[in-house]
Amino acid sequence: xxxxxxxxxxxxxxxSRVKLGVKHLRELMLFNDRCFLVIxxxxxxDNNQFELIxxxxxxxxxxxxxxxxxxxxxxxxxxxxxxxxxIAGTLLSMAKNNIQDVVAIGLASxxxxxxxxxxxx
Length: 121
Known about the structure:
The chain is an alpha+beta fold. It contains 3 helices and 5 strands, in the order βαβββαβα. The chain has helices at 22-30, 87-98, 112-120, and strands spanning 2-7, 35-43, 50-63, 68-78, 102-107. Helix 2 packs across helix 3 (112-120).
């Protein structure tokens, strides 16, 4: 199994207070240089190819009040065939460890298993 972190190359411009409507969310938090994707792949024994078995879409913002960065997981998915093996927790740990000075991590989900994975990350 392998895990990869994929970073974007766009540039985010900082500015004044932002309201997080759908348009601003897309522009400022989903498609910029602070967005990244963490993926989990499993090598197939049949054809030596990698199969995508899980991913986490992530972004981070600087939070001045705590003097660090906050990582937000906007989507966390693990293939049903691979659930219960700690893959979600590893994806979340990799997301957190990919960014320096993380003071908090959040998850845009109320699913109990996703929350449990986050608490174990």
